[in-house]
Amino acid sequence: MPRYTVHVRSEWLTVPCKDTCSTVLWLGREALRRYVKNKPDNGGLDCVADVTFLMRRCQGQGLLDPDDAIEDVLEDNDFVEVGRFPLHSQMANDVIYCSHNTKYREPQEYIELDGKTLTTENLVKLGKGLYKIQLTPEAVTGVKKSRDLVEKIINENKGSVYGITTGFGKFARIVIPNNKLEELQENVILASAVGVGKPLSQERSRMLLALRINALSKGHSGISSETLHQMIQAFNASCLSYVPEKGTVGASGDLAPLSHLALGLMGKGKMWSPKCGWADAEDVLRAHSLKPISPKAKEGLSLINGTQMITSLGAEAVERATAIARQADIIAALTLEVLKGSTRAFDSDIHSSRPHPGQAEVASRFRSLLDSDIHSSEIADSHRFCDRVQDPFTICCCSQVHGVVNETIAFVKKIILTEINSATDNPIVFAERGEIISGGNFHGEYPAKALDYLAIGVHELAAISERRIERLCNPSLSGLPAFLVTDGGLNCGFMVIHCTAAALVSENKVLCHPSSVDSLSTSAATEDHVSMGGWAARKALRVIEHVEQVLAIELLAACQALEFLRPLHTTAPLETVYQLVRSVLRLEHSPRKREREDLGLIPRQNLRQVSFLHTHASVYQQ
Question: Per the database record, which ranges form the Par3/HAL N-terminal domain (predicted)?
């Protein structure tokens, strides 16, 4: 008998179905009936027949038509969600909230924000939902002083102040009467929430909201303590606005994405939370006992004017680049080993003679992984007295190529770290001076240029990796079976997966064109130079994702090559790497026996374990 697992609120119910010609509506009502039956208080539902609900298939989140036959739209053992979007302004007792099928555990620990000390590491952790947010006492005081000055200037009518008592951009000379100041702030948010494209993931939306809270906590934006507290409450409840990824030119701030962020907090548009899934923002907030924000004077600009979209994506890019750069060293070392390369190119004296820090660091890491007095290698012993005097550049120049990537990442991280803890609003409120001054801190040129540079730098890890994959697959270069497979001809081995690597590298070469070299005048030439930093950030992440995938392919190829050298063993650290990879994915010599795993999962999940292995294995260091 077919069975379907149906998610109602926080419960999963198994519903057997004798007749699959029954409708989806029947399945939903039967699930609700079982839900009510098993709840002491009937689950808060008075009458199942009166509940209006919708249903989605968990896989793909496709909306199900209640009149469709079950057999036409579902498969045996399918997972289904029952949910309801409220039809009335007041939340009824019989509301069933849509639940997202991503597991979420409410964090219990807090990170304190003050606008000065947030790191890229902690911002990424906030994005993952590992921590809640609270402000430091100093930040609370600074925010209050900033708001007090805004209120004082408004109440005393001390002249026109851009964006507070005037219009925006081309309308900056139009003075707004005091009784319209709050309407002005709401209007600018509504007018600017015009982004397009796919929405940011929950993780990136959390990062965006957390970073905006951090910028406001610096005490230069004039936001009220009440509004900032509401933002923190929304973050801590993981109530996340629908934020399209496209639409910012990266000057006058990331207006479109930040406006969408603010829109949800105002109870407009769509929001997501673990409790409700995607629903109307007003209903999501109400479900968490939160009130929508009503922007006061200056607060519309405070919410939407800043570089947080560029910078939050940039922080993720920097952290992922840092991880993959470490992993690239480990993977390249394994490739060197199976290609029977020499360790001489990593001699410490060579790198002391050209003292770039990144180069020396990479060479040290190679020495800690390869044949040495600490870790011996039977493979290295097998060719110790061969007649080869120098390896190809993709092997012997790893320290120089990988080294500059490490220094590039460090340079970019410094800029992103400064930007994370900067006031990028306009105008800027200086409570100690008693002044509000218009400037250009909203311009995203710093993170835009840095992230263009990051993409160019990190791409090189994939470019050199793809060439090493060629050497692993080419029998005339490796001395191994062609494409690392037995029964070549009958089986293709790594032939086409090398094409995948080449395709990704080629895409990266196009993506590495700097977006920040472009600028288009907007807002009737008042915003006549922009950074295009939003695209710089998004394409940097895409480049890094491709680098992760190419290096995953090299890692799999190197592990496969190692099997052709058995019974010889490599060093203990590299054997551990091999075992780690094989615990995830086993590639037999015949691809017909290969487990059908998604190679795309390797970089994001298991290469991190390789990095963790090396980072914490101090015994490997010479």
Answer: 7-79
* Token digits of residue 406: 């490490």
Other Cβ atoms closer than 10 A to 343: 19
Is the pLDDT confidence value at 42 over 90? no
Task: At 83, give phi and psi (nearest 5°).
Answer: -150, 170
The rounded distance, in Å, linking the Cα atoms of 588 and 509 is: 33
φ/ψ bin of 480: left (φ > 0), alpha (ψ from -120 to 50), beta (otherwise): beta
Q: Per residue in 115-143, pLDDT tens? A: 999 999 999 999 999 999 999 999 999 99
In the predicted structure, residue 95 carries a pLDDT above the cut 60: no
- Do 536 and 313 touch, CB atoms closer than 8 A? no
Task: State whether the Cα torsion 124-128-131-137 is positive or negative.
Answer: positive
Specify whether the CB–CB gap between 488 and 474 falls below 8 A. Answer: no
Q: How many CB atoms lie within 10 A of CB 270?
A: 18
In whole angstroms, what is the distance from residue 456 CA to residue 547 CA?
11
Here the tokens at position 469 are: 């994959």
- Alpha-carbon distance of 540 to 501, in angstroms, equals 18
Q: How confident is the model at residue 102 (pLDDT cuts 50, 70, 90)?
A: very low
CA distances from 475 to 185, 332, 561, 611 (A): 67, 18, 11, 30
Q: Which domains does the chain have, with CATH numbers?
A: 3-83 (3.10.20.90), 110-306 (1.10.275.10), 313-406+445-620 (1.20.200.10)
pTM, two decimal places = 0.81
Pairing of strands 110-113, 132-135: parallel
SS3 (DSSP) at 465: helix
Say how far apart CA 270 and CA 444 lie, in whole Å.
27
Task: Convert the pLDDT of each residue in 301-330 to its tens digit.
Answer: 999 999 999 999 999 999 999 999 999 999
Question: Nearest 5°: phi and psi at 175?
Answer: -85, 135
d(CA 230, CA 415): 30
Q: Of the candidates 393, 170, 190, 163, which has an alpha carbon nearest to the alpha carbon of residue 299? A: 163
Residue 620 falls in the annotated catalytic set: no
From 4, 162, 242, 620, the catalytic residue: 162
Alpha carbon 591 to its chain's center: 33
The pair of three-digit structure tokens given for residue 174, joined into one six-digit string:
């139009």
> What does the pLDDT average to over 165-180?
90
The string of pLDDT tens digits covering residues 380-392 is: 999 988 878 789 9
Classify the phi-psi angles of 126: left when phi > 0, otherwise alpha if psi is within -120 to 50, otherwise beta: alpha
Measured CA to CA, the distance from residue 168 to residue 162 in angstroms comes to: 7
